[in-house]
Design goal:
The complex is a heterotrimer of chains A (376), B (355) and C (323). Chain A is of the alpha/beta class and 376 residues long. Chain A has 14 helices and five strands. Chain A has a four-stranded mixed β-sheet with strand order 2-1-3-4, sandwiched between helices. Classes of the chains: A alpha/beta (376), B alpha/beta (355), C alpha/beta (323).
Chain lengths: 376, 355, 323
């Protein structure tokens, strides 16, 4: 069976080339987005603006404050003279945290008693809020340990202050660079959105313009039409992928630890699924407007939030986790992170690979069924 | 179009509100306990009793950890070497390894801080116990933080995300639909038809924008209702104020939609422009998920131009903080200015094109 | 009429019907189109012309009835049909964002023309359409007439034995329309069967055979001359007067009047054969203070025929539903 897809592929390429804006979007915007977002976006919560109200005002309290801020996490931004100033500062967002040291701080400390300090955290951003709580606990725990050690030393103890030699290790991303985390997610996100949108318009446009009819009376078979329309966008998306990867390596040190061939294979399978999904949308939408809205609604926010790009799926309520199973980017991301960041082979993500293949097959099948119905 | 304009966004809002969370709890953990002592078991208990970690498996050898982390079945691993208990009892330093999967940086750093805290607490307990054992009574003070979280005491992600998603949805619905609708008329030629009538340009524009303005307001109300009913998230700052400030925001999105329609010839162009040149950047630079304060200074300056940024402050302020105009007037002014500028620019361009 | 065997028919249609829900778009149409002839499908908008053509081209499936195109059954062998026909739609169906040459290349490609043949046919198409030297022009910059010819060229690159043209002259200037019909004649002379739908009466005069279709029914079929014989028992006059509308209303009520229809600033009236009709008409109109400038007996045009046929069909239906 010979397939006559070349004329259609040729035509699509010609049309794409002529539409400079779309071409720019498909090729350069992904890379540009990667640059901007990889550079600008991160979860490293550092230099959080903090206000301090020191009621105790002793040498001890000042020492505590100094130790508290001896890190990158918090910046001593405001020194308060009264409690009433707190509301305005936090409400207005000028500080995200307030440290209040009560009057009896040094007294309690001297008498070896439980010494409370008050921490006010702006919880409106729950993400940063949790991180800040964690940091605060850690810092203060450290301080307590130090106090213990000093007391110990003063009283001539011979025990080691820190019984446990604690070695934290980070794998795959030792410096905990947000970029390494975000870059694969960005790739998946950008590819998903551009792939689906570009093909979503493909069939509808021809229908709206009337050229679809002309194709329908010709000997062109549904499968030829599908392949002919998908291939050009696959090629372009692949080029965009390569550009993103190169940029990711140059700017963010995200090098592909694993096999490039495997990466290519996985990406192609993912792309086919995404492009197929766009095609399917194209066959069920009446107008370009509707096709576009469906494509956007189905890809943008869901991929951003439900694919594991930013928010770990593990933390979601189980109903939502079930929903994430139909987000193709989810599987791609696992494979992507595994290959790029962890450098592992298929064994780590063969399940995901199966899902992706199944998804691609499903999309292409339903697209052809719909297309056959339209063409006949 | 009705379904797409109203129902789909609300559904999305609900799903996403529940899903978007960076909270750390039940981090899957794998334990490599090579000591098998009471002390090591005690340490592991300390980890699990906090609720932050949940043990998914035990391994015997250090090398087995590799596959757990590689395959993503665990995000964090504890390695307790042999002689852990013995070292502790003999007053020698006992090594302990905590390994985290660094690909999810946010969870990794939070996980680490929790792990550090737990280990330090455990160390302290050890110290105290052995001190008591040796009959020494060291009175050492403990600094204990009393943490109060304002606005969102349980640090629930959805309280943070839901107002955010409102802003995004509003932008998608009004900016994109507006630009598409106008360009479609351009494509069909019906716009020309309207221009030859005695209708004045400003009447034409108002007529075109009005429906989407209404859609925007209805969307706001629907979201407020959904937030209150589904997420138990009322608008602390008052619904009227929210509507009023949303109107300002709508001015900017409608203006942008109009602007996009003047620079696009086909619906496809309008779509591409709206999504990739406007929505994408606005999504990321507005403080939707990524705090603006953490961005490089240059980017922070760029984000000043993003109207969504101000709307997020407003929306979060009203939903969570319960602040009023006294706090929000800078944002309101920013939106007003932006709205007026973009509207006049777009209207001028529009008139030039059709006049 | 000489008997023709089935092989000489390019298109055979038997009781073809198409229903959309309860609406009958095409109502049991039967006709045969001889090879090499120019067959015109005439009728008002919404009469069922496009629907019929689309069924014959395999774009729609019939509700009932059968048809063969180029000897292939449209229901059983649609793929073979598609390979043997050319089709040009009302909207010309060209890619506006491709150049003239690129459009030709595309359509040549999907009909499977190899390089040499494509080159040949491309030269022919460019020549025929008068687009030599304009190969790299974007299709959207072409005026209506050129687009029309380019669309025709693209539809027959593969030299099909039959070509279906659906309202091919819509929105095109009269000179281009005339030239287009010359092209159609040429095709017909070369043995291609041309099946064209139109609502331009004057174009219908150019066809070998015309099928009148009204409300889904084939109301009449025959050559232009044959059809005009329909009005043999009537006389048709063209009347110029001061108040055509009033005049028409008045005359319509007369029992000897068949139809009246407005024609520019005058009107046509067909009456039963009787002598001195002109005098009678002038007198009646004068009585009502309408001055008559001219009354002329004319040879009925196809438009007259058609209006007559429509009226007859309407009357027949009224009778049928009353009974």
């Amino acid at each position: 069976m010979s397939l006559n897809i070349f004329p259609i592929v040729h035509k699509e390429f010609r049309q794409i080339r002529r539409d400079k804006r779309t071409l720019a979007v498909l090729l350069f915007i992904p890379a540009l987005m990667l640059f901007l977002f990889g550079y600008a976006l991160n979860f490293d919560i550092k230099h959080t603006a903090t206000a301090v109200y020191d009621e105790d005002n002793s040498a001890v309290s000042r020492d505590f404050i100094q130790q508290f801020f001896r890190n990158e996490y918090f910046d001593y931004t405001y020194c308060l003279n009264s409690k009433s100033e707190i509301n305005n500062l936090v409400d207005g967002g000028s500080v995200k945290m307030v440290l209040v040291i009560p009057k009896k701080f040094s007294d309690h400390l001297a008498h070896g008693e439980n010494t409370p300090v008050q921490i006010i955290i702006d919880g409106s951003n729950s993400n940063t809020g949790s991180v800040l709580v964690g940091y605060v606990n850690m810092i203060i725990q450290q301080y307590s340990m130090n106090v213990l050690a000093e007391t110990f030393a003063r009283q001539g103890g011979k025990m080691i202050a820190a019984p446990i030699d604690y070695e934290p290790r980070v794998w795959y991303n030792p410096e905990l660079k947000s970029a390494k985390f975000l870059v694969p997610g960005l790739i998946a996100f950008i590819l998903m959105v551009t792939a689906v949108i570009s093909t979503a318009l493909a069939v509808v446009r021809e229908r709206e313009l009337g050229t679809m009819e002309q194709i329908m009376v010709s000997p062109v078979k549904p499968v030829e039409l599908i392949l002919g329309k998908t291939i050009p966008y696959t090629v372009i998306s692949l080029i965009a992928t390569v550009m993103i990867l190169i940029l990711g390596a140059i700017l963010f040190d995200v090098t592909i630890k694993g096999s490039v061939l495997l990466l290519a294979l996985v990406t192609i399978i993912f792309l086919i699924g995404a492009l197929g999904m766009g095609l399917f949308i194209s066959t069920i939408a009446e107008t370009q407007q509707v096709a576009f809205m469906i494509a956007v609604l189905a890809t943008m926010l869901p991929t951003f939030i439900l694919s594991g790009f930013v928010f770990p799926i593990r933390n979601m309520p189980w109903i939502i986790q079930v929903i994430t199973y139909i987000i193709p980017a989810r599987y791609f991301l696992v494979a992507l992170r595994a290959i790029v960041l962890k450098g592992v082979g298929i064994s780590a993500f063969w399940e995901q690979l199966l899902y992706m293949v199944a998804f691609a097959a499903l999309m292409l099948t339903v697209s052809s069924i719909r297309l056959k119905k339209i063409l006949s | 179009m009705f379904g797409i304009s109203f129902i789909a966004p609300i559904l999305q809002l609900i799903v996403l509100g529940y899903a978007a969370s960076l909270d750390v709890s039940n981090m899957p953990m794998v334990v490599c306990d090579m000591d098998h002592s009471a002390a090591s078991r005690d340490l592991v208990d300390h980890f699990t009793s906090t609720g932050y970690f949940s043990i998914k498996g035990y391994v015997e050898r250090h090398t087995e950890i590799d596959s757990w982390l590689d395959d993503g079945h665990a995000s964090i691993a504890i390695v307790i070497p042999k002689n852990f208990e013995r070292n502790l009892n003999n007053g020698k330093q006992a090594p302990l390894q905590v390994i985290a999967d660094g690909t999810e940086t946010s969870s990794a750093s939070i996980g680490f801080s929790y792990a550090s805290m737990i280990v330090m607490q455990y160390s302290q307990n050890i110290l105290m116990e052995s001190l008591l054992k040796h009959g020494q009574q060291i009175i050492a003070a403990q600094v204990s933080p009393e943490v109060r979280v304002w606005y969102n005491p349980d640090l629930k992600s959805r309280n943070f995300m839901v107002p955010g998603v409102l802003g995004l949805l509003l932008m998608v619905m009004t900016m994109i639909l507006t630009s598409l609708a106008i360009v479609k008329e351009k494509e069909l030629g019906t716009l020309e038809q309207l221009v030859v009538t005695p209708i004045r340009p400003y009447q034409l524009i108002i007529g075109k924008l009005a429906p989407f303005f209404v859609i925007g307001i209805v969307d706001v109300l629907l979201v407020v209702a959904a937030a209150a009913v589904v997420f138990s998230l009322p608008v602390k700052g008052g619904v009227l104020l929210l509507i009023g400030l949303s109107i300002l925001f709508l001015m900017t999105t409608l203006g942008l939609g109009l602007f996009i329609s003047t620079i696009s010839h086909t619906q496809q162009q309008a779509m591409m422009t709206a999504i990739f040149f406007f929505m994408f950047p606005m999504m990321f630079f507005s403080g939707f998920v990524f705090p603006i304060e953490n961005m490089p200074v240059l980017i922070q300056y760029v984000s000043v131009l993003v109207p969504l940024r101000y709307y997020f402050v407003i929306v979060r302020g009203l939903f969570l903080k319960g602040v009023g105009m006294a706090m929000l007037w800078p944002q309101a002014v920013a939106l007003l200015v932006f709205g007026l500028v973009i509207l006049s620019l777009s209207v001028a361009r529009f008139q030039k094109r059709i006049g | 009429m000489t008997t023709v065997s089935a092989n000489d028919y390019a298109v055979t249609v038997e009781n073809l019907s198409k229903k959309f829900g309860s609406f009958v778009a095409v109502d049991h149409i039967s006709l045969n189109v001889r090879r090499g002839e120019v067959f015109g499908f005439l009728g008002p908008n919404g009469a069922g012309k496009s629907t019929t053509i689309r069924m014959l081209c395999g774009l729609l499936s019939p509700t009932s009835g059968t048809a063969t195109v180029a000897g292939f059954d449209i229901a059983k062998n649609p793929d073979a049909v598609k390979e043997h026909i050319g089709y040009m739609s009302q909207r010309f169906s060209l890619y506006e964002d491709l150049t003239v040459e690129q459009n030709i290349n595309f359509y040549g490609g999907i009909y499977g023309l190899d390089e040499t043949r494509l080159h040949e046919r491309k030269q022919w198409a460019l020549e025929m359409a008068g687009l030599r030297g304009k190969e790299t022009v974007l299709t959207q910059s072409l005026s209506g007439g050129w687009k029309q010819r380019l669309a025709l060229g693209c539809s027959i690159l593969h030299q099909p034995p039959i070509v279906f043209l659906d309202e091919p002259t819509g929105g095109v200037d009269p000179v281009s329309r005339r030239n287009f019909w010359e092209l159609i004649y040429e095709l017909s002379n070369q043995g291609t069967t041309v099946f064209v739908t139109t609502h331009y009466m004057d174009e219908a005069e150019h066809c070998n055979t015309i099928g009148f279709i009204y409300s889904g029914k084939l109301v009449a079929i025959g050559s232009p001359t044959e059809l005009k014989h329909n009005l043999d028992q009537y006389q048709v006059y063209e009347v110029h007067c001061s108040d055509p509308v009033e005049a028409m209303e008045l005359l319509q009520q007369q029992s000897w009047t068949r139809e009246t229809s407005i024609f520019g600033s005058a009107f046509h009236i067909s009456t039963i054969n009787f002598p001195d009709v002109e005098t009678k008409i002038s007198q009646m109109l004068a009585a009502k203070n309408i001055s008559v400038t001219q009354i002329e007996k004319i040879i009925p045009s196809l438009e007259d025929v058609f209006i007559h046929l429509i009226a007859a069909e309407d009357a027949r239906r009224q009778q049928a539903s009353a009974a």
